[in-house]
Write a structure and sequence with these properties.
By secondary structure, the protein is of the alpha/beta class. The protein is built from 7 helices and 65 strands. It starts with a helix and ends with a helix.
């Protein structure tokens, strides 16, 4: 026994000696040639810290420690074979390297490499050349996020021993036509294949699903297209499958067998569609599932409850419908739950209350209703609750005020009622409760939330007085929106500015009154909206960074306050300001929209108003008392889209320099004292859509234009109440392409202007001036009334088949009503009154089923008044003083000679009494569409008397015509 132990000890000692000798020798086996190769590689790059490596937690210049005379096998990032000393692993990731790897680089003189990692460096201008395909022993290759670009050599597919390949985040790198297919077919040992942001531009190869060794596959944002294979998914070792960002890759959700190891699955931002199969419940190891922004539909299968390991579930931006299944009792590991922007209905499932580890919960932009569940277990880690844009009702449950980790609370755009409670913890940074039915005062605890950056309580029924001094603790607040409530404001007397980081404040449409001494955000405020209040003045305006300043619809008096030079939007319309405009306003060289309309300003306009800002888009001076001439100079390449000088006392000529305003869409010079001929040269402006010259002193013949096709974009023309004479301008009428052959079905309805500011216009309909506070791009009208036009009405007007309003009244027009008017199928208002028209009213006009307003009075028309459709809704005033007319609604009956032979269609309608279905449809679609834009001003609390007049007249017209129909029916019987 002792001999055996002695032999064993001797053997162990010899073994240790040999191993020690082996290891000692291994550190000295780096061949001199390899040392030189590595040093030359080092010298081919520069070192720059601009490329950081965050993924690995730290980075440093590894090659800086490579020194000649030392053993290369001991250098950072270098691993040698224990016996041969050959370099077999080179890891230079995160080494701050910068330079180009050329095909003759000494890197390729290391033929024994088994692992090469060059990730997170800057090799801009390098390509994955053929030389990379000659590392015959290579098993691991990582070139990710290192600036490689250009074509990836097909020889990379010769690396038949490759187990791991990562080329991700090399923008501009792409495979050759069949390069990716070759790679998949040849690299049969692959376990990891990551090609995020590498251009593959190929259909998804079925052969990929035959790589049974695959563990991790990431082909996101690679330009894959075509259809993902529909057959059952069999990759038993696969743990990660990322295909997100391939917008043209379609397919159904794969059917998974129970034999799978999948832990992370991301198909987001692809074109996958169809319903989720019950087999999703087989993914019992799944931790992350992201199917957001696809085309999935149907309901969520209850087998989702089998995903007990899942921590992140993202289904937002699809077409899922039905109720959210009550499956969350089993999903206790869930941290992130995102179901927003779908069509879910019903109530929030109560099992949500058992998600004790949840951090982020988002059910926004659905159709959920009912109350927010009141029973929850813990939620100690919940940081974000997003339930906005649903139909939730009831009060805000108490647990939402007691979450210790809550950072964001989004409940806006619901039907929540009651008072806002007091918050118990101060972690909140964002509160969104806008557009609900909440009432009461703002809770005092909100003013203790020292981390708060955003507070949105707009469009509720909040009331009471809030003092600006309460904001003193909210030093991190960036955005404050309390608009559309019933709040009053008391300004603090503190001399120091509060809210040092505030950028946006909206207090519009409240009960704020008096003179304000403003002391919030003097250095940082960029957006301030105090419109629709009763503010009479400011003690101090000292904003240095202001960009948007909206003070319109208040009771401001005195001279115009000069906006800060940084201002790009300034609206102070609908106030009681007076005096002259100071030229100092022209120092605001970034101004885009300047609206001083509806005040009592006077004096002459500063000459600089037309050229003080190259960005100026809107200049609105409507309804003031300015006199003198319009500014004569405008900047070249200017951005002016709207010029509105309506209702002032301006005179002189239309500035010829307007011809350089190539972006001009709206020019309103109405109701001034301009004395000029028709500005035919405006016809060269390619985008001009609205031209209003009414109520001025324009004179003369409109005549012809030297421009081949003038005013091709014009769709609203108002030349009324001037002294134009001669024939109607047939040449210009023929050029109005924007009112001809328009397919409304292919048009996108929108208002002229931008999201925050829209153009307005005054339109006269049957003697009533209506202000369209927004101009829909489908609205068209021509008003040439109250001039001295003579001759006949041109037939070419019938070609304007997208015209909605036509007024030629109060002229000296003669002849017949053109038969071509029957083509004006969209016409809603027609006024030909106070002319000398003769002949019959064409029966064909009854086909104008949108016609809601008709005035043919004070002419010399004769014969039978057409019957049918809209003509049954017009009263006597439409035909007044045409003594030769007869028939309904006039009391004068027609003789046998005056009654035209009715068509079978019309005869059939009158046999049944009257076609009220068609009449009311036309009346509704005609007048309602025609006046809906004007009604916007009524709905916003403007002249209610006009609403009452119109409603009353409409009611009278309908009742009167129903009675007349019954009388005619009685006479026939």
């Amino acid at each position: 026994m002792s001999k055996f132990l002695l032999c064993f000890v001797f053997f162990l000692g010899c073994s240790r000696l040999l191993l020690s000798s082996s290891f000692s020798n291994s550190t000295k086996l780096c061949p001199h040639g390899q040392t030189l190769t590595l040093l030359q590689l080092k010298n081919s790059f520069s070192v720059s810290r601009s490329w950081e490596c965050d993924e690995y937690g730290g980075s440093y210049p590894k090659t800086e420690y490579w020194k000649e005379g030392s053993d290369c096998c001991s250098w950072d990032g270098v691993t040698c074979h224990l016996l041969t000393g050959h370099v077999i692993e080179l890891d230079l990731s995160c080494s701050w390297l910068s330079g180009t790897i050329h095909s003759n680089s000494t890197l390729f003189l290391l033929p024994h490499l088994q692992s090469l990692n060059l990730a997170f460096n800057d090799f801009s201008g390098s390509s994955v050349s053929a030389r990379f395909g000659r590392f015959s022993s290579l098993m691991h290759l990582n070139l990710s996020d290192s600036g490689f670009s250009g074509l990836i050599s097909s020889e990379i597919s010769h690396l038949s021993n490759l187990v791991s390949l990562d080329l991700s985040w090399n923008w501009g790198a792409e495979f050759t036509l069949h390069g990716f297919d070759s790679l998949v077919q040849n690299l049969t040992k692959l376990q990891k294949l990551h090609l995020l942001h590498i251009s593959i531009s190929s259909v998804f190869p079925n052969s990929l699903l035959n790589l049974s060794s695959l563990i991790s596959l990431d082909l996101s944002y690679s330009g894959l297209h075509g259809r993902f294979p529909d057959h059952e998914f069999h990759l038993p070792k696969l743990e990660l499958l990322f295909l997100f960002g391939n917008n043209d890759l379609s397919g159904n959700f794969p059917q998974f067998s129970e034999n799978n190891s999948l832990m992370k699955l991301d198909f987001s931002s692809t074109n996958f569609s169809g319903e989720l199969l019950a087999s999703i419940g087989n993914l019992k190891s799944l931790q992350t599932l992201d199917l957001s922004f696809c085309q999935f539909s149907g309901s969520i299968p209850t087998s989702l409850e089998n995903l007990t390991q899942i921590t992140s579930l993202g289904l937002q931006g699809n077409h899922f419908r039905g109720e959210i299944p009550n499956v969350f009792d089993n999903l206790k590991n869930l941290i992130f739950l995102e179901l927003s922007s779908n069509n879910f209905s019903g109530q929030i499932p109560p099992s949500i209350g058992n998600l004790t580890n949840i951090h982020y919960l988002d059910f926004s932009y659905n159709q959920l209703e009912g109350v927010i569940p009141s029973l929850v277990n813990g939620f100690s880690s919940l940081s974000s609750v997003v339930l906005s844009h649903n139909m939730l009702n009831g009060t805000i449950p108490s647990w939402l005020y007691t979450l210790p980790s809550l950072v964001e609370l989004h409940l806006s755009h619901n039907k929540l009622t009651g008072r806002i409670g007091e918050f118990q913890f101060y972690s909140l940074e964002k509160i969104y409760l806008s557009v609900n039915e909440l009432q009461g005062s703002i809770p005092s605890s909100i003013f203790e939330l020292v981390n708060l950056t955003s507070l949105y309580l707009s469009s509720n029924n909040l009331s009471g007085v809030f003092e600006t001094s309460k904001f003193e603790k909210l030093k991190n607040l960036n955005d404050l929106d309390l608009s559309n409530n019933m709040l009053s404001l008391t300004m603090s007397v503190h001399s120091n500015s509060m809210l040092p980081y505030i950028e946006s404040i909206d207090l519009s449409n409240n009960n704020i009154s008096g003179i304000l001494s403003w002391n919030m955000g003097n250095d940082t405020l960029r957006y301030l909206n105090l419109s629709y209040n009763s503010i009479s003045g400011f003690e101090m305006l000292s904003w240095s960074s202001m960009e948007t300043l909206d003070l319109h619809s208040n009771l401001l008096q005195g001279p115009l306050p000069t906006p800060p030079n940084s201002t790009s939007f300034f609206s102070i319309s609908h106030n009681k300001l007076s005096g002259k405009i100071s030229p100092l306003i022209c120092k605001a060289s970034s101004m885009k929209i300047l609206d001083l309309s509806h005040n009592n300003f006077g004096g002459m306009l500063p000459h600089c108003l037309g050229n003080f800002s190259k960005d100026l888009s809107v200049l609105n001076l409507r309804r003031n008392q300015f006199h003198g001439i319009i500014p004569q100079t405008f900047l070249k390449s200017n951005s002016i889209r709207t010029l509105d000088f309506n209702n002032n006392q301006l005179e002189g000529l239309v500035p010829r320099s307007l011809i350089i305003c190539r972006e001009l869409e709206v020019l309103d010079l109405g109701s001034n004292k301009i004395n000029d001929t028709f500005p035919h040269w405006l016809g060269a402006l390619p985008k001009l859509q609205v031209l209003v010259l009414r109520s001025n002193r324009f004179y003369g013949y409109i005549g012809f234009s030297k421009i081949k096709s003038p005013f091709t974009s014009l769709r609203i023309i108002d030349l009324a109440h001037n002294d134009f004479e001669g024939d109607l301008p047939e040449m210009y009428l023929r050029s109005l392409k924007a009112i001809m052959n328009v397919d409304e079905g292919n048009m996108t309805r929108k208002y002229m202007g931008n999201d925050y500011y829209q153009d307005s216009i005054m339109v006269t309909i049957k003697g009533l001036e209506l202000e369209f506070v927004k101009i829909l791009n489908t609205f068209t009208t021509i008003d040439l009334s109250s001039n001295k036009f003579q001759g006949e009405i041109p037939e070419c007007i019938g070609d304007l088949n997208f015209l909605r309003g036509l007024n030629l009244s109060h002229n000296d027009l003669r002849g017949h009503i053109p038969l071509s008017f029957r083509n004006l199928k969209m016409l809603e208002s027609l006024d030909l009154s106070s002319n000398k028209l003769s002949g019959r009213i064409p029966q064909e006009l009854t086909s104008l089923t949108f016609l809601a307003v008709l005035n043919l009075s004070q002419n010399h028309l004769t014969g039978f008044i057409p019957q049918g459709n809209q003509f049954g809704t017009f009263g006597n005033d439409s035909y007044y003083t045409n003594t030769g007319l007869c028939g309904f609604p006039l009391s004068k009956r027609c003789t046998t000679d005056e009654i035209p032979y009715p068509s079978q269609e019309i005869h059939a309608k009158f046999e049944s009494g009257f076609d009220w279905k068609i009449t009311l449809m036309g009346y509704g679609c005609g007048l309602v569409i025609g006046l809906s834009l004007g009604c916007l001003i009524f709905l916003s609390g403007k002249p209610e008397w006009l609403v009452w007049i119109i409603d009353k007249n409409i009611h009278k017209m309908i009742v009167r015509n129903k009675r007349s129909t019954r009388r005619r029916g009685a006479r026939r019987s």
